[in-house]
Amino acid sequence: MAGNKKGILERLAEGVVIGDGGYVFALEKRGYVKAGPWTPEATVEHPEAVSQLTREFLRAGADVLQAFTFYASDDKLENRGNMAYNKYTGSAINEAACQIVKRVAAEGDALTLGGLSQTPSYLSGLGKEAVQAEFKKQVQVFVKHDLDFVLCEYFEHVEEIEWAIEACKQFGKPVAATMCIGPHGDLHGVSAGQCAVRMARAGADIVGLNCHFDPFVTLDTIKVMKAALQDEGLDRHLMTQPLGLHTPDAGRQGFIDLPEFPFALEPRICTRWDMQKYAREAFEAGVRYIGGCCGFEPYHIRAVAEELAPERGRLPAASDKHDMWAQGLKMHTKPWVRARASRTYWEQLKPASGRPYSACMARPDGWGVTAGHETLKQHAKVTSEDEQNKALEFLKNENEK
Ligand SMILES: [Zn+2]
């Protein structure tokens, strides 16, 4: 019964909650999202594609389904020649997203979540009032559709996420807050620990990290955040939704700085066994909201759910086609593949990349400026050739520093 569903804070107090994976990246690969703007107009254009991916996360064990509202602020939908705003507006995209997620969540016992993220208005220095106006337009739609709680995610400046949390708190729903930062802290040099403290003080009920870094870098960072919260006597639930990609070589802005971003990251994809390791280590570190972001596909979420099956007392529906620790391979025709039906084999395996001239690490772009810098001012018109050349020259100089 939907009316008797336990809320997110109740579920977190009782045990572990599994989030879903990355919609933007998965739907880009499937042909429904454009890399560059990364906006979610697929909710209007291809609702069946969004529904299907949402359903796959539910089947994989997600306890929370996130409405596909990433970057659906009006200022982002019209940024740099993106035509989405002219066709639909943020409200129309968010309305469709809420309808989809409510419908799919009703197929199981999942909670629904509305997310908002960083804005071009902040990068351009338009100030608190203009930025919060973008957030409020989005949250109003989530509240109208009675989504269970709100997530401020993918912020790289603690000041902007404080504004987002403050704007969300007015609506009376639980608020989760995750920044896309790593061990270096935010882009204005605020430490990861201090970011956690400021998110908690701004009113976030759940504090953590998403995107930009791999599961293990993210866990190193959440431990720093946990210690800082404890030092300040702040008791908050912890949440991690990292990349489904390995990024040990990433710089301050995570995978955005890697030369392979966003079209050649495939050799970095985490295996399902990496995700079981992530789920166990996150649980042991005290994280109780464990999900994923870009690169995290439904089978990765299934791996998290399988690892945490002892704690949750159940396996997800998708495990009907996946026996734990490769046991299904016992049915294989080839004896050397049958021999791989063991936990030890897959836990000890070091997968090869299959790319003879490929390095195992890349050199990240050095990009030493952030919000407030001239090169990061945004506008609605298409990026010009002159701007493109300036960006290339700027990057060359930055990388030579
Ligand atoms: Zn992401």
UniProtKB/TrEMBL annotation:
<dbReference type="InterPro" id="IPR017226">
    <property type="entry name" value="BHMT-like"/>
</dbReference>
<feature type="region of interest" description="Disordered">
    <location>
        <begin position="380"/>
        <end position="401"/>
    </location>
</feature>
<keyword id="KW-0489">Methyltransferase</keyword>
<dbReference type="GO" id="GO:0008270">
    <property type="term" value="F:zinc ion binding"/>
</dbReference>
<keyword id="KW-0479">Metal-binding</keyword>
<protein>
    <recommendedName>
        <fullName>Hcy-binding domain-containing protein</fullName>
    </recommendedName>
</protein>
<dbReference type="InterPro" id="IPR051524">
    <property type="entry name" value="BHMT"/>
</dbReference>
<dbReference type="GO" id="GO:0032259">
    <property type="term" value="P:methylation"/>
</dbReference>
<dbReference type="InterPro" id="IPR003726">
    <property type="entry name" value="HCY_dom"/>
</dbReference>
<feature type="binding site">
    <location>
        <position position="293"/>
    </location>
    <ligand>
        <name>Zn(2+)</name>
    </ligand>
</feature>
<feature type="domain" description="Hcy-binding">
    <location>
        <begin position="5"/>
        <end position="308"/>
    </location>
</feature>
<keyword id="KW-0808">Transferase</keyword>
<dbReference type="GO" id="GO:0047150">
    <property type="term" value="F:betaine-homocysteine S-methyltransferase activity"/>
</dbReference>
<feature type="binding site">
    <location>
        <position position="294"/>
    </location>
    <ligand>
        <name>Zn(2+)</name>
    </ligand>
</feature>
<keyword id="KW-0862">Zinc</keyword>
<comment type="pathway">
    <text>Amino-acid biosynthesis; L-methionine biosynthesis via de novo pathway; L-methionine from L-homocysteine (BhmT route): step 1/1.</text>
</comment>
<feature type="binding site">
    <location>
        <position position="211"/>
    </location>
    <ligand>
        <name>Zn(2+)</name>
    </ligand>
</feature>
<dbReference type="GO" id="GO:0009086">
    <property type="term" value="P:methionine biosynthetic process"/>
</dbReference>
<dbReference type="InterPro" id="IPR036589">
    <property type="entry name" value="HCY_dom_sf"/>
</dbReference>
<dbReference type="Pfam" id="PF02574">
    <property type="entry name" value="S-methyl_trans"/>
</dbReference>
